[in-house]
C-alpha cells in the first residue's frame, strides 16, 4: 500500500522534472510528467484520503498542465485541466475557508478559466476568418493574454500566443500595406517575441525578431519624421539588439547599435530639452558605450 507521504514525494519529484522540461521548451515531455504526477496521487483524492498539502500539490500540477496545453494550442483540454484545478481549490477552501491565500488562489483559477474561454472565442473568430476589425481586436486579446502568462512565468505559453498574434497582424498588414498602425503592431509583436527568446537564451532567434522589428520601425519613422514616438521605437529596438550582441560577444556590433540609438536619443533630447526621460536614457547609453569601448 502506498502511503500518502510516499505518493506526495513521488508526485513532487515528477512535478519538478516536468518543470525542468518545460523551461527547456520540451512541452510534450513536460506534459507527460505532469500527468504522471497527477496519476500517482489521484487515488488518494478520489478516496477523500488527501491532506491539504496533497490537494494543493495536485492543484498546482493541474495548473501547469493547463499552461502547457495553452502553449500547445489545445484550449479545450486546457479548460478540462483548469476545471480539475478549480475543484481542488474549492475543496481546499472548504477545508479552511479562513485562509485568505486559498480564497485568492480559487479566485485566480476562476479568472484563468474566464481568460481561456475568451481566448477560445478569439481563436474561433480568427479561424472563421472574421472581419479585419475583429481580427485586430483578437490580436490584442492574444497579446494581452500572452502578457498575463509572461507575468506568471509561463514563457512558453506567452511565446506561443505572441506568435499567434503576430500571424494575425502579419495578415492584416499584408492586406493593408498603407495602414501604418497595423505595420507598427507587427513590430511590437516581433519585439515581444524577441524579448521572450532572449530571456530563454535564444540569442539568434531574438536577434532575428528584433532586426525584423527594426526594419519596420525604420520605414515607419522615415515616412513620418516628425513622430518622436516612432524614432524612440527605433532607438529602443537598437538598444535591444545591442544588448543581445553584447551578450553574445559581438562588441563591435553592439557598439554600432548603441551608437545609433544614442544619436536618435540625443536628437530627441535636443528637440525636448526639458524631458528628464531622454536625458536619463542618454546617460545610460553613454555608460554602455563607454563600457564596451574599453579594451577587452
Written description of the protein model:
By secondary structure, the chain is mostly helical. It has a domain at 1-128: Serine Threonine Protein Phosphatase 5, Tetratricopeptide repeat (Alpha Horseshoe). The protein is 84% helix and 0% strand. It has twelve helices and no strands. The protein has helices spanning 4-23, 27-46, 52-71, 75-95, 100-127, 132-151, 155-175, 180-199, 203-223, 228-247, 251-271, 276-293. Helix 4 (75-95) runs antiparallel to helix 5 (100-127) and helix 8 (180-199) runs antiparallel to helix 9. It starts with a helix and ends with a helix. 40% of the residues are buried. The mean pLDDT is 84.
Order of helices and strands: HHHHHHHHHHHH
Gyration radius from CA atoms, angstroms: 23 Å
Main beta sheet? none
Q: State the helicity in percent bands.
A: over 70%
CATH architecture designation of one domain: Alpha Horseshoe
Mean pLDDT: 84
General form: elongated
| Class per helix and strand makeup | mainly alpha
Total count of strands? 0
At a glance:
By secondary structure, the protein is mostly helical. 84% of the residues lie in helices and 0% in strands. The chain has a domain at 1-128: Serine Threonine Protein Phosphatase 5, Tetratricopeptide repeat.
Helices and strands in order:
Elements: H1 4-23, H2 27-46, H3 52-71, H4 75-95, H5 100-127, H6 132-151, H7 155-175, H8 180-199, H9 203-223, H10 228-247, H11 251-271, H12 276-293
Helix pairs in contact: 1-2, 1-3, 2-3, 3-4, 3-7, 4-5, 5-6, 6-7, 7-8, 8-9, 9-10, 10-11, 11-12
Amino acid at each position: 500500500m502506498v502511503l500518502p507521504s510516499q505518493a506526495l514525494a513521488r508526485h513532487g519529484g515528477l512535478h519538478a522534472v516536468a518543470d525542468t522540461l518545460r523551461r527547456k521548451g520540451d512541452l510534450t515531455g513536460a506534459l507527460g510528467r505532469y500527468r504522471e504526477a497527477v496519476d500517482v496521487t489521484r487515488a488518494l483524492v478520489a478516496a477523500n484520503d488527501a491532506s491539504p498539502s496533497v490537494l494543493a500539490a495536485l492543484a498546482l500540477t493541474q495548473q501547469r498542465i493547463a499552461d502547457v496545453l495553452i502553449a500547445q494550442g489545445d484550449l479545450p483540454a486546457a479548460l478540462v485541466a483548469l476545471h480539475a484545478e478549480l475543484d481542488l481549490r474549492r475543496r481546499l477552501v472548504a477545508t479552511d475557508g479562513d485562509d485568505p491565500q486559498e480564497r485568492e488562489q480559487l479566485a485566480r483559477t476562476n479568472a484563468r478559466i474566464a481568460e481561456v474561454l475568451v481566448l477560445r472565442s478569439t481563436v474561433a473568430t480568427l479561424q472563421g476568418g472574421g472581419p479585419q476589425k475583429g481580427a485586430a481586436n483578437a490580436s490584442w486579446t492574444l497579446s494581452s493574454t500572452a502578457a498575463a502568462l509572461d507575468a506568471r512565468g509561463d514563457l512558453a505559453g506567452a511565446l506561443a500566443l505572441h506568435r499567434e498574434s503576430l500571424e494575425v497582424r502579419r495578415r492584416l498588414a499584408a492586406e493593408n500595406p498603407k495602414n501604418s498602425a497595423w505595420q507598427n503592431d507587427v513590430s511590437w509583436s516581433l519585439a515581444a517575441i524577441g524579448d521572450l527568446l532572449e530571456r530563454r537564451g535564444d540569442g539568434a532567434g531574438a536577434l532575428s525578431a528584433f532586426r525584423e522589428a527594426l526594419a519596420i520601425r525604420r520605414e515607419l519613422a522615415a515616412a513620418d519624421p516628425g513622430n518622436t514616438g516612432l524614432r524612440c521605437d527605433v532607438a529602443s529596438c537598437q538598444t535591444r539588439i545591442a544588448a543581445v550582441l553584447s551578450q553574445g560577444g559581438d562588441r563591435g556590433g553592439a557598439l554600432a547599435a548603441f551608437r545609433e540609438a544614442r544619436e536618435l536619443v540625443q536628437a530627441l533630447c535636443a528637440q525636448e530639452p526639458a524631458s528628464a526621460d531622454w536625458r536619463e536614457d542618454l546617460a545610460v547609453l553613454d555608460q554602455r558605450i563607454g563600457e564596451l569601448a574599453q579594451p577587452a
